[in-house]
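## Example record

The block below lists the input lines for one assembly entry, exactly as stored, with component labels intact.
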Amino acid sequence: MTRLGGALLRWPLLIVLVILWEVATRAAGSAFFPPPSTIVTRMHALWFSGPPGRLFLTDQAVADILPSLGRMAGGLAGGATAGILLGLALGLSSRAYDYLDGVLQFLRAIPPPALVTVFLVVFGFGMRMQLAFIMFSIIWPVLLNTADGARAVEPLYLETGRAFRLSRRERVLRIVLPAALPKVFAGLRLALSLSLIVTVFAELLPGTTNGIGFQLTVAYSMFNLPAMWAGIVLLGVLGYLLNEVFLVVERRVLGWHHARETAGA
Amino acid sequence: MLEIENLTHIYGGGGPSAHHAIDQLNLSVAEGELLCIVGPSGCGKSTLLRSIAGLITPTGGRIKVDGELVRQTPDNLAVVFQDYSRSLFPWMSVADNVALPLRRKNMDKKRRREAAAEALESVGLSGAGRKYPFQLSGGMQQRVAIARALAYRPTLMLMDEPFGSVDAQTREDLEDLVLKVRGHHKMTIVLITHDIDESVYVGDRVVVLSKAPAHVVADLQVDLPSPRDQINTREHPDFVHLRAEVGRLVRGQPVAH
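Predicted structure tokens for the full assembly:
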């Protein structure tokens, strides 16, 4: 009910804001700030005027959007898998955690763009560098949240597992991991939004020939401001949709957790 | 079945903050017996249970289950903890919770499911397998924990204040449930409680522990007629007499003979 009410309020507000944006940009008449109607027309022309058989996607859309999503998915999958595995290992060994906590907090605190030159030196320009850069950027929230979750597992859960003689592997897979899952998902959600940011950042670098970031660079260099704005709006829409998909998955996987919290247990 | 010799446990390794929980405790439990252990709060009852279950290593003495020295959790031993809300796994359905320990028993998935359904039926929860623990009341959750122990087919079941967190009516139902399942499954039960009436009502034998460091103060046989009944048993003169005696022992008062 509240969700429905929220959704009903959300759309009128958005529409009012877009109308205000339209009026303001038209009144200003600045070439740097095209009105939203121009941006949407350009988005349609650029990406969504293809044949119906291809879901209306143009060749340009395939060249811009798919490579970005691919890099993002690859980096996210690699970084999240590594983050969960290392986080579990770290959370299960309090000694390792004590030793490494400071180092990890230090590494996490470095803004990824500051390290981009290091990645260029090691990997050169291109896909390998981009993937490594995305993985490195998003691994920290996943790793640290997973380690936190694995450390905070209710002791009686573990004692129950031991009392029923579950093997160590079973205790990790069936008790520690599910118990840490709410924390893991908190980390994954941060990683998801971060991955879109660093993917676009990596695509702004030389040596890229496709992707939304590349499209932005091209539009900017040709002083094609409507196309640049189209890219920016597209990124906003993508980020929103990805987050919505993530929430659907989370609600499925963590149903027990949310239901339990609402039940007040 | 269970033999405890000179069991001693000190937490904190002898420093100034060390806590002497158990001191030179001797106890033996025969096959098929239902032994209740009572004692004042904080006397080391849970330490004793965790030592028997192999969850902690006592600092001194020996524990044998079926003649085998306990080093880790023995085979065929199941534990029912007091805090069901933190001993059942909230991310698993009730049936999965009950079936989980059966993974160690070399049973295939189908047989694990059947055994879980059967155990749930024997605690009166036939239809609840697909629910999640948080959807059940406290008493029902503790029934699930008991079903999990039963499905495991233990020869020794340890219960750590199993009814300490439920209301009085539910507590009586669960006491009778223990007596019932005990009749069906031939097993030895050690039940720890701080409730004096409960120990006399449920037990074949009641062992009273001193306050910490715990040792055995008294070992009393309960010869009440079977089957026990919440109304009749509790008004039986032997019950009234015995509960008074246990009560005095727990409080450390002299016993009149």
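The CA atoms of residues 128 and 136 of chain B lie 9 Å apart. DSSP finds nine helices and ten strands in chain B.
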